[in-house]
Amino acid sequence: MPLTAEEAGVPNEAAAYLASLEDPEVVERVRCSIPDAHVFKLPPRQTAGGWRGADWDQEVWQGTLKVVERGDLTVVLLVDRTSGAIFAVCPVKDGAVDRCVDSSRYFVLRVENANGRHIYIGMAFNERNDAFDFNTSLEDSRREREAAANPVQVDVGPSKDYSIKEGQKIHINVKVGGTEKKSKSKDGKKKKAAGGFLKPNTRDTPRRLSDT
């Protein structure tokens, strides 16, 4: 008799997900919900090149597929459209979801029961857009979990003190009416503010000799 996942020492993620449903503190996020998913019993694989959806002719179930994150787990759920009862659980991990070689709408899922035993089933969508949403949800979940597990370290450098020290003064040029104030020298005469553009004095310009 084959061992269960617990007896073999293998983490039973399907059982962990089902147990988490009893915990109201666990946050659940539904990545996508696709109402028309079809499940097929897989025939023996004809070639080693991969699964072919064209070989599937025994449909066993139809309902809603969901990609759900709950706690640290990501699972593909197959649920009844009317009652919401769970038909199958596919914990997302390496080798759990495989694409068929002859159609982008057909997949093979590795589903597990509460005892950790698993079986492979065929799953198909009616529309390519549904298959695209399914793939995107799985990829986004994988990428975000990898980013959370390996956060990027940003070196902000040492903090700087921009406070004004005791006795330190700040000099500010204040413009009045669009021009800077002209400061007075010690003898009371006004000095022109530096930095402005001055027209050249005509006496500094050499007189052009007229042609004779």
TrEMBL record:
Region (Disordered): 142-212
Segments forming domain NECAP PHear: 28-175
Superkingdom of origin: Eukaryota
GO BP: endocytosis
Compositional bias annotation for Basic and acidic residues: 201-212
Gene Ontology cellular-component annotations: clathrin vesicle coat
PANTHER family: ATP-BINDING CASSETTE ABC TRANSPORTER-RELATED, NECAP-LIKE PROTEIN CG9132
Name this polypeptide is given: NECAP PHear domain-containing protein
Highest classification ranks of the organism: Eukaryota, Sar, Stramenopiles, Ochrophyta, Bacillariophyta
